[in-house]
Amino acid sequence: MKQMRDKIIQLIEETKPNFIVFEGVQYQSNQLTYSQLSQLQGVIMGYLFDINIGFEIVKPSEWRSICGIKGRKRIEQKKNTQIFIKEKYKIDVDEDTADAIGIGYFAINKIKVKK
Fold it and tell me: The whole model's pTM is what?
């Protein structure tokens, strides 16, 4: 947990964002993983409060809707997100990177950040 926190803080310090968007934690089937991810999210939120960086937590269904991602099952949604990224940006990426780009697409198109 500390290593992940430290790496995320390092990334924030290097990139100096003025706003951050991340996906909310959702329960899949493993209570331990859900708990750990929720705790990490809380740690990061606390850090963002401390350094006065705004953030928004987006539900997977929200950002996927903006991207036009269809699919009933998670695996189908993941594959369709990769296809969306390939068609939109002409790049091949893994599932996690595709999700991150999809969240970024949502942020650019739906979130109004106060300056």
Answer: 0.86
